[in-house]
Amino acid sequence: MTLTSGRYIGLEYDRMIVLFSMQDGSREIGCAISTSAMDDLERGPKVAPEHREAQFTRLRDRIEACAASKYRACEFEGTPPGIVLRSIDFRG
Length: 92
Prior knowledge:
Structural class: alpha+beta
Number of strands: 4
Shape: globular
Largest sheet: 4 strands, mixed
Helix content: 25-40%
Strand order of the largest sheet: 1-2-3-4
């Protein structure tokens, strides 16, 4: 099944990741992207914590396309299994 947009969950400051979800039908898939990956995607200065949601919204299409690709490849991490995106996932 194709993944669709889920919800923005929020910034986890201690781990410097943004949590979000995607949907596989009625099943919610937990996802995360590092803040450094988002900064690398924009090729600009580091974004302040209070602006991470706006940054995620600007980059959402690219982030979700990458998450969907990792989902199709069954590249899950963690417990419960989810999708984790890092800068290296956007290279190439």
